[in-house]
């Protein structure tokens, strides 16, 4: 269940919307947050400023953002903290020094540094529809929606954003809160597509092997991505329980507790204070030998190298596309020598996001823990993320009501 930590003040400006044929005036400025990469020196990394309210596209819609998933990326490095709320100050410092060769690839308006999901995880309410939108478009003012993260999607850490094509909007059922909905478009969708890729490979292995053979999967990380992947995998592999074993390589103690809620999942802690050989041996013991598939939500050379050491000959490591683009040149030769494959995973499709909404609404997939914070507390939230003080995901709320 989400945890509301403090009341949120009403926005100071009015809204110009079309409700029942009546038009009200809107202030031409709205609030936007800019979240920089956290800096170990402790200087401010969150800024709030006013930007023009975007005009409603003639064939699109303007959305009033209610909730946005809080996420960031450490300066010059995409450590695990860029993907999840589970991070540590020590790992932040380590990853910044080890992985300092990260190319910054995104340059969204309002961001001093790029983030993997720069405000893409948003949920809100249709505030206005364009003048050329047909009455039978399937959407009405007041509908609760999320946005599929299409190419060119605007920054979501803003009170109002626009979408030019309604096909990228997905309605949210009444029984799904907007704080949960905000987790779906980026992190949960990426986890779902990764599980789909792994599921296809498992089906291939089952066809090729003896019917009594077991396929072993290792999921690296216990932040938002890994927790979504674990829940989605539990659903899609439910009819293959005798043929599939799943092990979680946890980077945190609280991650261990969350992963242990699944009785059929093995858990091994990747304590970075241990030698690499010890960590590999510990993982192999937990998995009862080399694994066939690794879903690696880590984003460093060290994580990928360790995953490959735990992988059997002919095995596959699934990694996020942005990470694969950076690390594949370093590891292609090793993968060839070990007869292993490193497969990039794309963010996911619009159809998958629709399916994910249905599964969460029906209760067949339960979302991971999350905590809701007022957007005004974004600075405190980022600091809490840096010091591992938030379990699961952190959600910023711009308005007080669903």
Structural features, described:
Residues 1-16, 18-25 and 72-118 have low confidence and may be disordered. Strands 1, 6, 7, 8, 9, 10, 17 and 18 form an eight-stranded mixed β-sheet that branches. The chain has a six-stranded parallel β-sheet with strand order 13-12-11-14-15-16, with helices on both faces. It has ten helices and 18 strands. The protein is globular. The chain is of the alpha/beta class. Helix 3 crosses helix 4 (224-236) and helix 3 (184-208) packs across helix 9. It folds into two domains: 3-183 and 368-397, Quinone Oxidoreductase, Chain A, domain 1, CATH 3.90.180.10; 188-345, Rossmann fold (3-Layer(aba) Sandwich), CATH 3.40.50.
Q: How would you summarize what this structure contains?
A:
This protein is α/β, with parallel strands linked by helices and 402 residues long. It has helices at 89-98, 178-181, 184-208, 224-236, 253-259, 276-287, 301-309, 321-337, 350-362, 378-386; strands spanning 3-4, 18-19, 22-23, 29-35, 46-52, 61-69, 122-129, 144-147, 160-163, 169-171, 215-220, 244-250, 265-269, 291-296, 311-320, 341-345, 370-374, 393-397. The protein folds into 2 domains: 3-183 and 368-397, Medium-chain alcohol dehydrogenases, catalytic domain (Quinone Oxidoreductase, Chain A, domain 1), CATH 3.90.180; 188-345, Rossmann fold (3-Layer(aba) Sandwich), CATH 3.40.50.720.
Reconstruct the topology from this structure.
Blueprint: E1 3-4, E2 18-19, E3 22-23, E4 29-35, E5 46-52, E6 61-69, H1 89-98, E7 122-129, E8 144-147, E9 160-163, E10 169-171, H2 178-181, H3 184-208, E11 215-220, H4 224-236, E12 244-250, H5 253-259, E13 265-269, H6 276-287, E14 291-296, H7 301-309, E15 311-320, H8 321-337, E16 341-345, H9 350-362, E17 370-374, H10 378-386, E18 393-397
Parallel strand pairs: 1-17, 11-12, 11-14, 12-13, 14-15, 15-16, 17-18
Antiparallel strand pairs: 2-3, 4-5, 6-7, 6-9, 6-18, 7-8, 8-10
Helix pairs in contact: 3-4, 3-9
């Amino acid at each position: 269940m989400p945890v509301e930590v403090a009341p949120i003040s009403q926005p100071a400006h009015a809204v110009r919307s079309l409700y029942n044929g009546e038009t009200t005036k809107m202030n031409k400025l709205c609030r936007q947050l800019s979240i920089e990469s956290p800096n170990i020196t402790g200087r401010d990394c969150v800024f709030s400023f006013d930007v023009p309210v975007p005009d409603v596209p003639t064939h699109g819609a303007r959305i009033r953002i209610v909730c946005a998933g809080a996420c960031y990326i450490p300066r010059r490095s995409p450590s695990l903290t860029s993907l999840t709320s589970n991070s540590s100050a020590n790992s932040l410092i380590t990853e910044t020094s080890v992985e300092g060769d990260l190319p910054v690839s995104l340059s969204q308006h309002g961001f001093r540094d790029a983030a993997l999901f720069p405000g893409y995880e948003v949920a809100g309410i249709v505030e206005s529809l364009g003048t050329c939108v047909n009455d039978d478009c399937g959407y009405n003012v007041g509908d609760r929606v999320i946005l599929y993260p299409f190419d060119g999607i605007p920054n979501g850490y803003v009170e109002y954003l626009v979408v030019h094509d309604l096909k990228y909007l997905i309605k949210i059922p009444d029984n799904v809160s907007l704080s949960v909905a905000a987790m779906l478009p980026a992190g949960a969708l990426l986890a779902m597509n990764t599980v789909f890729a792994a599921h296809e490979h498992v089906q291939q292995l089952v066809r090729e092997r003896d019917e009594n053979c077991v396929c072993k999967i290792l999921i690296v990380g216990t932040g938002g991505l890994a927790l979504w992947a674990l829940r989605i995998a539990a659903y899609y592999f439910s009819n293959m329980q005798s043929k599939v074993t799943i092990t979680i390589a946890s980077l945190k103690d609280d991650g261990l507790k969350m992963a242990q809620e699944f009785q059929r999942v093995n858990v091994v802690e990747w304590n970075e204070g241990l030698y690499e050989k010890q960590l590999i041996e510990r993982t192999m013991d937990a998995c009862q030998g080399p694994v066939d598939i690794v879903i690696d939500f880590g984003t460093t050379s060290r994580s990928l190298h360790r995953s490959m050491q735990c992988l059997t000959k002919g095995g596959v490591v699934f990694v996020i596309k942005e990470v694969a683009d950076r690390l594949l040149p370093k590891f292609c030769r090793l993968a060839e020598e070990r007869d292993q494959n490193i497969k990039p995973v794309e963010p996911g499709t619009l159809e998958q996001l629709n399916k994910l909404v249905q599964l969460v609404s029906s209760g067949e997939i339960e979302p991971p823990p999350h905590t809701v914070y007022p957007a005004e507390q974004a600075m405190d939230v980022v600091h809490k993320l840096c010091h591992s003080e938030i379990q699961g995901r952190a959600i910023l709320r711009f308005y007080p009501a669903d």
